[in-house]
Design brief:
The protein is mainly α. It is 72% helix and 0% strand.
Length: 109
């Protein structure tokens, strides 16, 4: 996404945004599968609903923040902030997963 900020044309911006969008379905699928695998059988529907709610809340909150930022900052800066936020989440997630696989039923869902 950081590369999309200084895109020289709308076509390049569309291509870069499309490439970034390719990562959304696998992420959502992984989140749903992880919730399903880690929740006890009697709580799997609830776990899926919580994942869906979290995605919708994050999307809504992110949209509100993005709208406020694009009114105040140059567009390339907004794209760079998006890339930084994604990198921080990825680093935080990878550092928390060094202990091995998630045990079934170990979730707080």
């Amino acid at each position: 996404m950081a590369a999309a900020g200084p895109a020289p044309s709308v076509l390049v911006l569309a291509v870069l945004s499309s490439v970034a969008g390719l990562f959304i379905p696998p992420t959502l699928t992984s989140a749903c599968l992880l919730a399903d695998e880690t929740a006890p059988p009697e709580r799997r529907v609830q776990a899926g609903v919580r994942v869906n709610t979290a995605v919708n809340a994050g999307d809504s909150g992110g949209g509100a923040v993005a709208g406020a930022l694009t009114d105040r900052l140059p567009l390339p800066t907004c794209f760079a902030l998006t890339a930084v936020a994604a990198a921080v989440v990825a680093l935080a997630r990878s550092s928390g997963r060094r202990g091995g696989a998630v045990r079934a039923g170990a979730s707080s869902v």
